[in-house]
Amino acid sequence: MLLSNVTSTHPAIFLLMGIPGLEHLHIWISIPFCSAYTLAVLGNCTLLFIIQVDAALHEPLYLFLAMLATIDLVLSSSTLPKMLAIFWFKDREINFYACLVQMFFLHSFSIMESAVLLAMAFDRYVAICKPLHYTTVLTRPLITKIGMAAMTRAVTLMTPLPFLLRRFHYCRGPMIAHCYCEHMAVVRLACGDTRFNNIYGIAVAMLIVVLDLLFVILSYIFILRAVLQLASQEARYKAFGTCVSHIGAILAFYTPVVISSVMHRVARRAAPHVHIILANFYMLFPPMVNPIIYGVKTKQIRERVLRLFLRKDV
């Protein structure tokens, strides 16, 4: 098997190793991974179908939820099928350019998800703090512009990465110690000065996490202040209850990021498979739980899901 192209400075293919150190458990590990992916696909497709067919759900909150579901589908589908092929069939090969494409989709759609969660925080802020202006502020054209801005930001930030990686000479072999083409896992195989890639990757991650999370927290500070000013306890509970699903989605997205970041710094001597499992958890958890969170906690979604399945039973 030819692993590299002698006329090029980069390998023709990379070899994804899956979870190094746990190769003998790949079949067993694939069971929860496959289950999570199945739930993610079914849950997000159901959300998109319900929002599409029900005109009453063509409101700002549900349009943002449709964006989130679409992103989660792309995010999970860009990594899980190849990951399961590694676990089931030991199909570790991935073309160099396919690897760069996977990396681009993985990181750009993660950035988009962060932006959409921020937009949903803005939606909750307007709904609770300025309810009389909700329909005039969050118009369809503004929602479209927010979606386009989220996509433009992600594409702009991630487009340089494939070009930066393409210029390197890869002298440390073609084996990527990961389940998918993560940026830093690929950079570790490159020779030469990779400091710019390291700095750029960290800067983008910190910018997105810190900036978006800061604005989300600010939105909820204003929301909490507005809720506490309501006259009755019932009104406070009802108002804050509309935010529970969004808070759950934020925790599902950012908690694995924070845990993984802390582990990389606190437990540097931990086995590599620990960090890889955490990274996979970050990829799988939000797409799997977001439909469950919104399906259980959002009355309109819950009622329409029940109506859909009850109609099938009749």
UniProtKB/TrEMBL annotation:
Signal sequence, start to end: none
Q: Does the keyword Membrane apply?
A: yes
- What are the UniProt keywords, alphabetically? Cell membrane, G-protein coupled receptor, Membrane, Olfaction, Receptor, Sensory transduction, Transducer, Transmembrane, Transmembrane helix
**Membrane topology for this entry?**
Multi-pass membrane protein
Sequence ranges assigned to domain G-protein coupled receptors family 1 profile in this UniProt record: 43-294
Query: Please, which domain of life does this record's source organism belong to?
Result: Eukaryota
Stored InterPro entries? GPCR_Rhodpsn, GPCR_Rhodpsn_7TM, Olfact_rcpt, OR51/52/56-like
Q: What is its main location?
A: membrane
Transit peptide listed as a keyword: no
Q: Which residues cross the membrane?
A: 25-50, 62-88, 94-122, 142-165, 199-223, 235-254, 274-296
Q: Where does the record place it?
A: Cell membrane; Membrane
Summarizing the function annotation, the protein's role is: Putative odorant or sperm cell receptor.
Q: Which family does it belong to?
A: Belongs to the G-protein coupled receptor 1 family.
Q: Under which name does UniProt file this protein? A: Olfactory receptor
Query: What organism is recorded for this protein?
Result: Pipistrellus nathusii
Taxonomic path: Eukaryota, Metazoa, Chordata, Craniata, Vertebrata
